[in-house]
Design a protein that fits this description.
Elements: H1 2-13, E1 26-34, E2 44-49, E3 55-59, E4 65-71, E5 74-81, E6 87-95, E7 100-102, E8 105-107, E9 115-119, E10 132-137, H2 138-143, E11 161-163, E12 180-182, E13 191-194, E14 197-198, E15 217-225, E16 238-243, E17 251-260, H3 268-272, E18 280-294, E19 298-311, H4 322-325
Parallel strand pairs: 1-7, 1-8, 6-9, 13-16
Antiparallel strand pairs: 1-4, 2-3, 2-5, 5-6, 10-15, 11-12, 13-14, 15-16, 17-18, 18-19
């Protein structure tokens, strides 16, 4: 029984381990100084996730600098403590995918049992790095209206991004076309990753293979220019998608989206031809659920979505009239539509 339990736990944990590829984590770093501005080495610094309880600790170096690389996205608190100084706690440090966040702390003399708590506001100015990128949060993905529940439409709202003529918001996988020109690059010059794994259709490079459910996305960032050397594989944008994970609280939800031909208008050409309305029946439904297996230690998140669709396809084309089929091309032409009249090679 013990072996079966360990095996089942491994099955739950392994799918959550990201591939070692593009950067999907973040970094908190900074300098600890005293009230005179002098750096303080040997300070104990601890970061803790406010959602999952994940904790890491380190000590400042001789220059008073500390760093916590490879942190999962989320909101953190930073606690700084040293004998002879008041303990300082910085709360509300939000980390998004591939962020480098500076949190500098100034210690005041006093006892360790005395605390100074600082709430950090949202970052107004980026102080580390020079990349040009745009972030779309999971809340925006889930709450903003999307045609076909395709989250990549939100990428077209960023500066320097334009979509190609065949940009497709309805289909998925190889049937879709997610063609974006970013910062002057070609339509097929982008790298799409999900939790760090390459998600490009390497045959055409014009679409992605796996479309995460809208309700399973934690956030995504479009790195448009001047991004770091850890990103590669394409000269255009790096679209970095991160999926959700569980927290110390149980959360879940269910949803349904539908379309029906009774609510749709008739196609103009079908109506002109006296044909019935094309069938349309779309059912998009699913659910999510996540929470702790072991509080502060192990969490899970499950997402499942189903798509059921029946859709008619209307094709239009110009066909010869009865007179043209008989060889008479003297009839009137339709401006900007009809082909040129054929020329008899014998008579001109």
């Amino acid at each position: 029984m013990r072996k079966i339990t360990v095996f089942l736990m491994a099955l739950l944990v392994l799918p959550a381990v990201p591939s070692i590829a593009q950067r999907i984590t973040a970094t908190i770093r900074g300098t600890v100084s005293d009230t005179t501005g002098a750096v303080v080495p040997g300070v104990n610094v601890t970061v803790k996730s406010e959602e999952t309880g994940f904790t890491r600790s380190t000590v400042t170096n001789s220059s008073g600098v500390y760093s916590f690389p490879e942190l999962p996205t989320g909101t953190y608190s930073v606690e700084v403590a040293l004998t002879g100084f008041k303990t300082s706690v910085v709360r509300g440090v939000t980390l998004n995918v591939a962020d480098d966040r500076a949190v500098n702390v100034r210690l005041e003399t006093g006892t360790v049992t005395e605390n100074i708590t600082v709430e950090v506001p949202a970052v107004a100015v980026k102080t580390i790095g020079g990349e040009v990128a745009g972030l779309v949060t999971g809340e925006q993905v889930r709450e903003l209206p999307l045609n076909g529940r395709n989250f990549l439409q939100l990428g077209t709202l960023m500066p320097g991004v334009s979509q190609g003529d065949t940009f497709n918001t309805k289909d998925r996988g190889l049937m879709s076309g997610i063609e974006l020109a970013v910062s002057g690059s070609g339509l097929g010059g982008n790298m799409w990753t999900v939790d760090g794994a390459n998600n490009n259709d390497v045959g055409s490079n014009r679409t992605i293979l796996v479309f995460p459910s809208v309700d399973a996305i934690d956030e995504f960032k479009v790195h448009r220019n001047a991004y770091g050397a850890e990103f590669g594989g394409a000269a255009g944008a790096q679209v970095n998608i991160v999926t959700r994970s569980g927290t110390n609280d149980f959360h879940g939800g269910a949803y349904y989206f539908g379309r029906n031909d009774s609510l749709a208008s008739s196609d103009y050409f079908l109506k002109q031809a006296g044909q019935p309305k094309a069938p349309l029946s779309t059912h998009d439904f699913g659910a999510t659920f996540g929470g702790p297996l072991i509080k502060d230690k192990l969490h899970f998140f499950v997402s499942q979505e189903w798509n059921r669709e029946k859709r008619g396809l209307t094709r239009t084309a110009f066909v010869p009239t009865a007179a043209e089929r008989a060889g008479d091309f003297s009839g009137p032409l339709i401006e900007d539509c009809s082909s040129d009249r054929p020329v008899d090679p014998l008579t001109g």
